[in-house]
Amino acid sequence: MPFSTLSPAPWYNRLAETGLLTGLLLRAAAPAVAQQPAVPVTITVDVAKSLAPMQPMWAYFGYDEPNYTTMKDGQKLLTELAALSPTPVYVRTHNLLTTGDGTAALKWGSTNAYTEDKKGRPVYDWKIVDGIFDSYISRGMKPIAQIGFMPEALSTHPVPYRHHWKPGDNYNDIYTGWAYPPKDYAKWGELVYQWVKHCVARYGETEVQSWPWELWNEPNIGYWKGTPEEYQKLFDYTEQAVHRACPAAQLGGPETTDPRDPKAAAFLRNFLTHCVSGTNYATGKTGTRLDFITFHAKGRPQVVDGHVRMNMGVQLRNAVEGFKVVAEFPTLKNLPIIIGENDPEGCAACSVELSPQNAYRNGTMYSSYTAASYAHLYALAAQYQVNLRGAVSWSFEFENQPWFAGFRDLATNGVDKPVLNVFRMLGLMGTGHRVQVTSPTALPLAETANPDRSPQPDISALAATDARSASVLVWNYHNDDLPAPPAEVEVVLRGLTVPQALLQHYRIDQDHSNAYAAWQRMGSPQNVSAEQRATLEQAGQLALLTSPSWVSSKNGETVLHFTLPRQGVSLLRLSW
């Protein structure tokens, strides 16, 4: 991912100081390393061999800062997200019960939903949180309604409460008064009841029943300053309150961190044990109702020899270990699973300026990684026979930040990044059935989910069909951000029952669907003119590689040839 030497962004000099920039520029000038097969890659798609429904588990997004929702660029991005999916998009955000005036900041947000008067009586104010949920509902989206964090008036340790974290600060500084247990569990339960009851009155019971409600975020680390048992107690009181207000509502948890960590896996396992056979803190009975299960799966990119090396295997192994824990509970193993944060690494607000391993975020490495990782997740869910409902990309936008500052986001200053176009491609694949794909250059699942995975490229595809179309998502991904020749790809579609189909070939690469590359060609300006903005906005949209054309089928087989650059993604969509 080379950086322009003209009009550098503020983080350019910092990258030069770290040595990463030097390595990037040296490898950009070096001869390309031939790592591709010498012969064309043949990917075979059998449209007659259905594997499973094309569950849109990718149509899930999330972010820390809820107040960005109602800001200018947040509103624009929500409209784009709603438009890209054939089914409702789900949105998860933190801080929906945090005390404050609604001012947005990195890793922070507030709604002031709960305060108390001088006599300690509850005061409920739903104005800000209603504005957030209204933004979703008006677009046909659905909140993953996260119940958290602790209002200042209920916290057992309220001071200090508001943090002022910024990139480069100690991450542990964010865990202030909002992270503590309540001083009164009954008041907490009543807050939850009043909120759900209010939502039923505002949006209707049928709508609220369709939302996944969940308790807290990452309670096995600093986000929860209580004990595991206190979290279980909080869940019991929350469950009682949610279902008192809306009996058919869906409530899940515990949103723990990566299950490859034995401590995180133990927290998840102990929570599930409590739900199955523990003593309910609120009722005294055995067990607690649980409607779906959540945990996180993150990767771990690094800087190696002057370039970024992703670690998709770490992320996928986290998913696998979570699936395994759930499978230990026969009465729970068929419950829906939502991977509440499903990302290449752990800190969306940590920009490339201070975290050079995050230099993958602006360009095509993020988009090819996303295409490959979601496809592999489909396969892993099938292999482990779990009910994977959704996998949340913890990425949104950061309002009023420098252009392409290297946050993990989908857009910068209202301009879409290449990664957003992968989700547009997935949306165009529809909700039919996934079908069989065979590729000699696809990494086997066992190797894909291995943190010490092979240095070979992963050139493969995800395919789906419905009554009137067939779609093939093809990627040329590699863990190392190093130059390489493009791949010559042959896609053979078998089992087609129509003589002709209209082919639309969409592409993400350096020249297509890539506002970052367009911005670099402008000289990487931070003061973007109106004309430049219009150019960048157009460059950020999903683009066709070629004009639509008619292709023929012979003996039920259609063959397509094209060149796919390293870290490029193509969507071949045939309709009839």
From TrEMBL:
Family, as annotated: Belongs to the glycosyl hydrolase 39 family.
Domain of life of the organism encoding this protein: Bacteria
Keywords: Glycosidase, Hydrolase
PANTHER family per the UniProt record, alphabetical: ALPHA-L-IDURONIDASE
Pfam families from the UniProt entry: Glyco_hydro_39 (PF01229)
Occurrences of domain Glycosyl hydrolases family 39 N-terminal catalytic (ranges): 42-539
Record protein name field: Beta-xylosidase
Origin species: Hymenobacter citatus
The keyword Hydrolase is annotated on this UniProt entry: yes
